[in-house]
Every structure is written in structure tokens, then in C-alpha cells.
Amino acid sequence: MGLISPELITKIITSASSAPSGDNSQPWRFVVRNNIIEFHYLPEKDNAILNYENSGTLIALGASIKNAELEALALGYNPKTKYIQKGSCVATMELQEGGRLKKGELQLHEAIFKRHSNRKAYRKIALDEEPRTDILNLFSSNEYGVGAVLLESKDVLQKTARALTTMEEVALGNQKLHELFFKDILWSESENREGKNGMYIKTLELPPPAQFLFRFLKNWSFARALAKIGFPKLVAKTNAKQNASASAFGVVVVRRADRETYLNIGKFIEHAWLLATAHGLSFQIVTGMVFLARTMKDESTKNIFSDKERKLVDRSYDIVKKYVGGAGEPIIVFRLGTSSEPTDISYRTKPDISFVK
User: Fold this and answer.
1) Which residues contact 149 (CB under 8 A, 6 or more apart)?
2) Fewer CB within a 10 Å sphere, N or C end of the chain?
């Protein structure tokens, strides 16, 4: 097989770069050598506190790889992916002849550019039988070597939702987290359309009064004054009610976490998200508290969080862990359900591609 054209390679990488990433950080770059695509990760683009073991970046790269594999198959190539254990290059993908999408993969491929976060309230209805069956089949397949648990009872959804919004409660009252969070907010439509890293304010689905208040909240002195009268807790309770409107929470669990596992988690999450999108479901990653609980284990964070914050997060993490039983350690949580279309979406910048002879 001769060299694949740069146009087709770029098409594959464009699909790869449409993958989800924390706060739309897009922490990747790509190097092409002949018919091999290298996936390089850029952890410095992610949240410095929450990116424990570079897990957030690696999960994003895993999702990127999943998209690239689907696009390569759709173009008739057979992608051979190999993980790299050290260095900035986390994986290589050699494109060989003879690929095609299998049954079930066509709908995933078609959903790549339709997949978006939806932070709206959902409709408080149970999952329909067909999407629920497909999701549970994915959960039990062990295709990616990770486990997953679907939480569906009303009581569990409510308690899990409140545990997860501990993230907002801590972030709005902790100066370091506050700075990092507001640094990643995009306030203008033009910034979002340019594909800049960060979360566009409209994708947060805040009501107009809250959007207005957010512009004042980015000032730490103002946020600190509100924290003293319990504002972060009020926000957490309000967001918990919205999150509990989901039909289900999905919790990804593992028994060990390393570089390869994080990449596989990313592939699993993207598969689940594309599957949900194909079924017309809304989807949102709600895993900040879980990341926070894990990063608090790091000695480098000991001066960032108070004992009160640590105890609050530990209790919340234990709630989620209780509901997954002995399946493993929770790593990622997402919510599923039915809702109207998101108010807006986060755009991507043109992917960073280097063609090397």
C-alpha cells in the first residue's frame, strides 16, 4: 500500500480531535510518519490540580484514539493501535489496508460530530429498553478491560447527584480551585467559535441571572464573601437537583489505574457517549468530585485543601463507592437521559498536525 494522502490523514485526525476533554482543553497533538499517526498528550493544558496522574489528559487521548479508529475504518483502512508506555507519545496507529466498520460501529461513526455535552435538566424518565440494553451490553462486554455500573433508582440518583456536586461546593470556596475554574471560562461567542480551550459560558446552561452573577463570581474577593454565608452549598444543592433528573448515572470503575488503563477508560467513555448519542440520549460527564478525591491523595495538594474540605470530599466519594459495590474504584461518572438540545456547544480548534518524512 502506498502513502495515504495528507487529506485523508487529516480527516482521521479531525475526527480524533473532536473527542471530549476536560473543560474542552484539547490536550493533544499529532505527528504523522508515513502511514503511522502518533498521538501525543499535553497534560499542561489540563487542570493542574484535578489531573491526578495525568489521568484526565490520558482519558481524553483514549477518546481521541477511539474516534480515529472509527474514522479509519470508515475510510477503508485497518487501524493497528499500539500503546506507548513512556514519553509524550501515548500511542501509534498504523493504517493498513482492508478495514471496514462492523455491525454496530456505523452508528458510532455517524455520531462523532453529533456528540456534545448537555448540562440541562433531563426529563426524569427511565431509559427505553433498547438503549438501556445496548448500554448494559457495552458495560458487560469487557471490550476495554474496565468495569462500569449503571445506577437507576430514584433514591440512589438523588444521593449520588448530591455527592457529585460536592465539587461545586468546594470549588466555589477554595481559592486555588476557583482560580483554575474561572480561568477556563469562555465569555464570548467569538472565542468559542474560534475553538479556544475552555468552557463557553452558555454551555453551562445557567439561567440569565446566574450568568450575570458568574461575572462577579470570577472575582475571588466576591466569591469568598459569598462562601462565608453558604452560597457554595446552595449552588451544590441546586445543581444536585438538576443532575438527579437523569435517567441513570454510569460509573466507570477499575481495580488498578495506570497509563494504559486511563487510555482504555477514554475509549470506553467515548464508545458509551457515541452510543448514547446514536440513541438520541443526552450525556454529561460529572466527575469533578471523583477526580478531586483522587488528587487529594497526592502530597503536593496538602496545603491546598483544608481538613474540612478533605472530609467532605472523602464522604462524598464513599457514597459513590458504596453504590458500585465491590466492582472497583470509581474513576469517571456520567449522567444519561432525555432532554432538549443544548443551548450551545464547544467548538474545536484546528488540530495540531506535523507531517514528518
Assistant:
1) 139, 250, 251, 253, 323, 324, 325, 327
2) C
Question: Residue 353 and residue 357: Cα distance in Å, rounded?
Answer: 13
What number of other Cβ atoms are within 10 A of residue 222's Cβ?
13
Q: What is the pLDDT of residue 77?
A: 97
Q: How far apart are CA 245 and CA 124, in angstroms?
A: 5
What is 129-337's CATH number?
Answer: 3.40.109
| 199-to-64, 102, 184, 244, 302 alpha-carbon distances in Å | 19, 34, 6, 22, 28
pLDDT in tens, 86-113: 999 999 999 999 999 998 999 999 999 9
Q: Is the pLDDT of residue 212 over 90?
A: no
SS (HEC) of 295-330: HCCCHHHCCCCCHHHHHHHHHHHHHHHHHCCCCCEE
Per-domain boundaries in the chain: 6-114+349-356, 129-337
308 is written with which cell numbers?
A: 474540612
The pLDDT of residue 297 = 87
CATH topology of domain 6-114+349-356: NADH Oxidase (3.40.109)
How many C-beta atoms lie closer than 10 Å to residue 252's C-beta? Answer: 28
Please report which confidence band the pLDDT of residue 119 belongs to, taking 50, 70 and 90 as the band edges. Answer: very high
For 230, left (φ over 0), alpha (ψ -120 to 50), or beta? left
Residue 249 and residue 251: Cα distance in Å, rounded? Answer: 6
Q: Is 182 a residue whose pLDDT tops 80?
A: yes
